[in-house]
Every structure is written in C-alpha cells, then in structure tokens.
Amino acid sequence: MDTYKLSVIFEKNALDDKLFALKVFLHGPVFLTLPLGERRRLRRQTEVMEEYSAILAERIVAFSDPYAQ
After folding, report:
1. Which residues touch 52 (CB under 8 Å, ≥6 apart)?
2. How far apart, in Å, are the Cα atoms of 4 and each of 1, 8, 17, 60, 65?
3. Which of 26, 31, 60 is nearest to 46 (CA)?
4. HEC profile for 17-67?
5. If DSSP codes are grouped into helix, strand and coil, which group holds residue 11?
6. 3-class secondary structure, 8
7. Which end of the chain is less crowded, N or C, counting CB atoms within 10 A of the terminal residue's CB?
8. Residue 68: which region, alpha, beta or left (left: phi > 0; alpha: psi -120 to 50)?
9. 33, 53 Cβ separation under 8 angstroms
10. Rg of the chain taking only CA atoms, in angstroms
11. Whole-angstrom distance, CA of residue 41 vs CA of residue 46
12. Confidence of residue 1 (pLDDT cuts 50, 70, 90)
C-alpha cells in the first residue's frame, strides 16, 4: 500500500482515538463543572472531529475504487 494511503489510515485511527476520549470526557463529571461556553465549544469540536473522521473514511474507501468521486 502506498505511503500516503497508510498515512491517511493512521491519521483516522489517531483521530478516532482522540474522538473516543473526548466523548468519554463529555459524559464524565468534570465536563459539567466547566463553564457553559467551554462545554459548547467541546461539543462543537466533537461534531467537527466526527465530520473529519467521516471524510477520512470516505477517502479510505476510495482507495479501493479508482472511480470513486
């Protein structure tokens, strides 16, 4: 497999690990002690990370389909 393809796979794996940890934090007791603005930013960050992960997943699928658009 090409180096850049492996890089995308590693990037998605690392992102998904961070996303999992963030989601765990959002459901933990410390999250509720944060100011409302910070909680909102963390939720937005979660949404953006989920979208980023989905895009990386699309790219990985496209590796095996040269006609994927």
Report:
1. 15
2. 9, 6, 20, 11, 16
3. 26
4. HHHHHHHHHHCCCCHHHCCHHHHHHHHHHHHHHHHHHHHHHHHHHHHCCCC
5. helix
6. helix
7. C
8. beta
9. no
10. 16
11. 9
12. confident
Model-level pTM? Answer: 0.89
Q: Which two tokens stand for residue 30?
A: 């410390």
CA gap 26, 49 in Å, rounded: 14
Dump pLDDT digits (tens) for 3-52: 999 999 999 999 999 999 999 999 999 999 999 999 999 999 999 999 99
